[in-house]
User: Which sequence fits this backbone?
């Protein structure tokens, strides 16, 4: 439904309205069973509150000493024979990857799932440089064929139906018989498996993300259920890891703590099928494994969050629980957010990555119900952080003139109790006059709100009037 | 240079310069030794028997097949029986297991890294984790990493004495002789739910994970 994304949200409102009216998307959103599976997994782990607090404290400790741990991480990667590329922004990160790809003469690059790769627009850049990127995670492969961005950080093709996938496979896998049956998930998975298998062996470069980076050893940890990330990094001659600087933890044991929370919060599994710790290139006597190991460390706006409460956003371990529990995401899916990261975590992260001007609608797209913060395994206060951005939007005068006018009017009134009470009385009277059967189906200045809702009309004098008539002093 | 720029931005945002020597030393101590782990009850066991039982139960719940073998010499025959006709072509083998008599069990094995047409590979795990029901595979000259992912059937031999309680213990066992280049925890056959959230086995990695638990049964 959406074209490509260059981390600059276009028109959230229009896209959201279109998403609500898209029956296929609504059907796909109804298939999301992650929340229920997460609830079962958390219920089976009585120590969850303690683990969650410990995980948040761990990430805060790392962030407060991130410079030191990054330096130690880089030294450990280099000691293991790897190379670290420090990248300020998406552009320099892409340049670093292309530099490695050219140096090793890669003509194709297999890719494990990487949100950091999405964030920097890696596929488009590789293609432009004449290097063919091949996504190996099934979901990512599907959306690569469809030329679409992911709609969910852990289930990128969750907006696609089985019939959509069959259509894409028929259109792209031209060497297969045209009339073959493709009406079962098993058949589709098997076809993708046989198509992708030869790619691992011919790719000159294998690119993965990282769920965690280990400072003590210079390792990159990835988790998958498919094993595609492992085939990608074990079979390519060069393994390149793309990761944000906030992925760091001090030791492997610290990753263990976060692993206990990650899969449970994401898919409701105790642990993913594969968890791999990769440390440097193939060693002297190793018969296989990559001959070279690169880590592309990306800032790309992350450090801009570190000066105030928004630093807590960098605790995020990308489990997707906040998306799965968000009533807004649940209605519109990931694409209307117009950015790599959708849902609550994206609403806080994207303004830092894409600029507040471009992303000004995102912190507004919340009911503030608080479920996202409740289910976050690292206790990120997401609604508070959205409020932080809202404040900044107003301070920088990035909100629409109508909003600013309404707020200024309200401020003027709120500071003048006499006028305020008068205005309340007038509004109450006016709304009652407009009501039909005690309800309002249209209200002045609130057409957008009443289009989908019915507003109950005021039923009597204001609270303040009642309070005073009860003999109370204001 | 970007390195200095990134470190500089972090320090500016945290409103400080490089860490004071005392703080840096505290971080380095944190890097040298992990604080006491916060272990959930499901990673704690009354005795060896409970630990082994939890490992077996959780591993098979993850979709793996499990066989218990009394001693190493019995491994090749058990593998042959489990593979059936699938074991007839040449199998990939971790050199760590090359001393076993595979020919006697009617199996042809090729020690070394995985080759594309091999239907199955037999490898040796350094540990098994009872908390998660996972086997722990470490790469090295005796245990090529590709054997874990390329073949359709992955047979993992695991000494019963190498079972440990927690994730931390599993990582610890894997790095006991120095950190291997790669450590992989595996909890079952490869799978995906990327199409309409329907679970399908055999996505990219092995379609079957067979674990042979060898030796003392721990009660």
Assistant:
């Amino acid at each position: 439904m959406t074209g490509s994304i260059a981390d600059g949200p276009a028109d959230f409102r229009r896209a959201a309205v279109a998403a609500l009216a898209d029956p296929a998307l609504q059907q796909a959103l109804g298939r999301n069973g992650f929340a229920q599976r997460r609830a079962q997994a958390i219920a089976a782990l009585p120590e969850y509150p303690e683990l969650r607090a410990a995980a948040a404290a761990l990430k805060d400790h790392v962030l407060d000493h991130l410079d030191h741990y990054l330096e130690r991480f880089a030294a450990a990667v280099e000691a293991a024979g790897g190379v670290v590329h420090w990248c300020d922004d998406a552009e320099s990160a892409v340049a670093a990857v292309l530099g490695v790809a050219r140096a090793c003469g890669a003509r194709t690059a297999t890719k494990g799932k990487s949100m950091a790769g999405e964030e920097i627009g890696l596929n488009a850049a590789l293609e432009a440089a004449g290097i063919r990127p091949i996504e190996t995670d099934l979901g990512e492969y599907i959306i690569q064929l469809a030329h679409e961005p992911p709609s969910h950080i852990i289930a990128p093709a969750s907006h696609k139906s089985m019939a959509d996938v069959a259509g894409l496979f028929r259109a792209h896998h031209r060497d297969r018989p045209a009339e073959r049956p493709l009406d079962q998930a098993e058949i589709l998975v098997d076809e993708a498996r046989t198509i992708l298998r030869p790619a691992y062996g011919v790719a000159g470069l294998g690119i993965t993300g990282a769920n965690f980076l280990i400072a003590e050893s210079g390792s990159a940890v990835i988790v998958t259920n498919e094993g595609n990330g492992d085939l990608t990094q074990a079979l390519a001659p060069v393994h390149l890891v793309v990761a944000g600087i906030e992925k760091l933890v001090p030791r492997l044991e610290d990753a263990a703590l976060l692993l206990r929370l990650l899969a449970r919060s994401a898919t409701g599994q105790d642990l993913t099928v594969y968890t791999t710790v990769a440390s440097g290139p193939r060693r002297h006597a190793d018969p296989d494994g990559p001959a070279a190991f690169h880590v592309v460390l990306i800032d790309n706006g992350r450090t801009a969050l570190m000066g105030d409460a928004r630093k807590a956003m960098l605790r995020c371990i990308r489990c997707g629980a906040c998306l799965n529990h968000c009533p807004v995401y649940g209605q519109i899916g990931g694409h209307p957010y117009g950015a790599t990261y959708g849902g609550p975590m994206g609403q806080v992260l994207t303004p830092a990555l894409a600029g507040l001007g471009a992303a000004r609608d995102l912190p507004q797209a919340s009911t503030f119900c608080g479920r996202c913060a409740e289910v976050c395994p690292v206790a990120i206060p997401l609604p508070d952080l959205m409020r932080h951005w809202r404040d900044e939007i107003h301070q920088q005068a990035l909100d629409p003139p109508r909003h600013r006018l309404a707020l200024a009017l309200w401020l003027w009134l709120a500071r003048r109790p006499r006028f305020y009470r008068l205005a309340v009385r007038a509004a109450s009277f006016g709304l009652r006059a407009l009501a039909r059967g005690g309800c309002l189906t249209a209200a002045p200045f609130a057409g957008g709100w009443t289009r989908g809702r019915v507003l109950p009309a005021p039923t009597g004098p204001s609270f303040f009037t009642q309070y005073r008539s009860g003999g109370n002093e204001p | 240079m970007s390195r200095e720029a990134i470190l500089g931005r972090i320090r500016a945002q945290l409103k400080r310069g490089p860490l004071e020597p005392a703080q840096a030393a505290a971080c380095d101590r944190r890097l040298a030794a992990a604080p006491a782990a916060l272990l959930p009850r499901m990673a704690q066991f009354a005795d060896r028997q409970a630990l082994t039982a939890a490992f077996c139960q959780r591993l098979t719940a993850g979709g793996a097949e499990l066989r218990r073998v009394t001693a190493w010499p019995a491994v090749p025959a058990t593998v042959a029986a489990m593979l059936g006709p699938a074991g007839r072509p040449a199998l990939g083998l971790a050199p760590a297991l090359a001393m076993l008599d595979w020919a006697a069990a009617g199996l042809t094995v090729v020690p070394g890294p995985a080759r594309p047409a091999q239907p199955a590979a037999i490898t040796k795990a350094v540990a098994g984790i009872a908390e998660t029901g996972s086997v722990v595979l470490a790469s090295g000259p005796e245990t090529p990493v590709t054997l874990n992912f390329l073949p359709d059937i992955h047979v993992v031999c695991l000494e019963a004495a190498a079972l440990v309680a927690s994730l931390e213990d599993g990582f610890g066992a894997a790095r006991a002789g120095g950190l291997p280049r790669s450590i992989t925890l595996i909890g079952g056959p490869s799978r995906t739910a990327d199409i309409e959230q329907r679970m399908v086995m055999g996505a990219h990695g092995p379609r079957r994970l067979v674990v042979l638990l060898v030796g003392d049964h721990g009660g």
Summary: Chain B has two domains: 1-33, 40-214. The first strand of chain B starts at residue 65 and ends at 69.
